[in-house]
Amino acid sequence: MPIFPRKTENMISSEKSPDAILVEKAIAGDSNAFGELVEKYSSFVYRTVFFDIRKHEDAEDISQEVFIKAYRALYSFRHDCEFSTWLYRICKNTVYDHVRKNARTKAIPLSDMSSDDYEREYEVPDTDGKYDPEKTYLSKETSAIVNDAIASLSEQHRDVIVMRDIEGLSYSEIAEILSLEEGTVKSRLSRARAALKQKLSGKNIF
Amino acid sequence: MGTKYGCEKAQKEMLACDTQSKELAHHLEQCEECRKKYQELLKMNSAVLMAAPKTPDLRSGVMARIVNQNIKIKQPCAPRRRFIPFGTIAAAAAVFVIYLSVQSSGVSDMLSPKNENQLINDTDSAENVVITDSETVSKSGANFRYFAFDQKGSDSAISESSAEPESAPALYSADPEGMEFSKNDVLLAKPKRAQDLDTSDDKLEAGAVKTETSAEKLEAVADNVNAPMFDTAQKTASEWFEEYDRLYPGRISRELFEKAGNDAYISFISSITDFELQYTAISFEEFLNK
């Protein structure tokens, strides 16, 4: 099931999308409505920011800032695009602002981070419900390499990998967010995966 | 093993799409190399998903910040006013100040086509008028020149002074009795006092030199009933006599006019500032006796 609801023909013609309804409620003073939006898009925003910034603490702060900016500017959301598209733009602008402010501070590659930085980050698949220390360790190693490889991709490739392979958005949703044609999304995703595979080849990942 | 074309197409498809088409599934059954690459791709996708960082609880953090920092949704604001750069305003103000200073300092006199020398020299040219308003000068405090004419009205007798004369001896504010003008002199507006002028052109400050066309002269005179038009270039002395005799019938007889002569009559009516009072036989005779 896709994370973001697809825009159906009915929604386009007459009905408002669930996000638009939540936005209207938030503007009307319903703080829970905005809380729902934050919860819905937390993962998308945080991971997008994380692979741009490569630092978890900064990514969390910036992600919060993205939602605060969105909250302040809710009136300017014109409903002529999806909320996710609008939020993505805010997200990227906030990241660019952060990068400009910290231009002198060099980004730290994930591989240079201490083990404590990784400790809470990995989602270890627990298929059989049993804790396997060896499996967990290997997963940490693998995760560090994979995340480093994703972070080293170009921004265009990075974003489609995050949206499709991590967030599980549909091609149409990605096309909507990036303002691209679906065919362009597919070709970009194809090149992104090829580039990622190239970076991970020989690292005993697969 | 599939064909080379089939492998290329299959690898493109497996990279771009997540679902297998019938052709791809059929190709993978036959091609071991593509099957291996497909397995690698699945493993990579799985590794990417597993490696994804865990998302912290942003909702509670964001909502706490909104409450604690009292963050509000910005209300839509009215369209901004068009911004005028400060430099533009300053430049406009400077130009205005310069304009005022030029106007008040009499520099405009210097820049005008007829300066004071031209005024003096052109008294015979029948094209210039000097309007001197002593009250205006004293109120503004500006440094104007005053031109005093002696009773002969000759060029050499015109003196210039920067001090305001007590009797405001301007051309039209002075008592014209006894003043003499040459045949070609022109008098346009002849109020008793300069402040009596009420047209916009009459508000020219003291010392200003104004060049007017004949049409403007006629209009200026038409505004003042008590200052008939007098222009020797238009009519002869005899014609002027007929004109004034029609306006003031019987005041000066034809005999007196013929006895005095054309030049004397022209000089007399040139000296008159109030025809209603001064265009009389007595005044004419007194003028002749002088």
Break the fold down into its secondary structure elements and pairings.
The complex is a heterodimer of chains A (206) and B (290).
Chain A (H helix, E strand, L loop, with lengths): L8 H5 L4 H10 L3 H23 L2 H17 L10 H19 L13 H5 L13 H19 L3 H12 L4 H8 L3 H19 L6
Chain B lengths: L3 H13 L5 H9 L1 H20 L6 H11 L17 H20 L1 H5 L4 H6 L6 E4 L2 H7 L5 E3 L10 E3 L46 E4 L2 H9 L14 H11 L6 H7 L1 H10 L3 H4 L2 H9 L1
Helix pairs in contact in B: 1-2, 1-3, 2-3, 10-12
What does this structure look like?
The complex is a heterodimer of chains A (206) and B (290). Chain A has 206 residues and is mostly helical. Chain A has ten helices and no strands. The longest helix of chain A has 23 residues, at 31-53. The two termini of chain A are 27 Å apart. In chain A, 36% of the residues are buried. Mean pLDDT of chain A is 80; it is low at 6-13 and 113-131. In chain B, the strands form two sheets. In chain B, strands 1-4 form a two-stranded antiparallel sheet. Chain B has a two-stranded antiparallel sheet with strand order 2-3. Chain B has 14 helices and four strands. In chain B, α1 packs across α2 (22-30) and α10 (237-247) packs across α12 (262-271). Chain B has helices spanning 4-16, 22-30, 32-51, 58-68, 86-105, 107-111, 116-121, 134-140, 214-222, 237-247, 254-260, 262-271, 275-278, 281-289; strands at 128-131, 146-148, 159-161, 208-211. Chain B is mainly alpha-helical and 290 residues long. Classes of the chains: A mainly alpha (206), B mainly alpha (290).
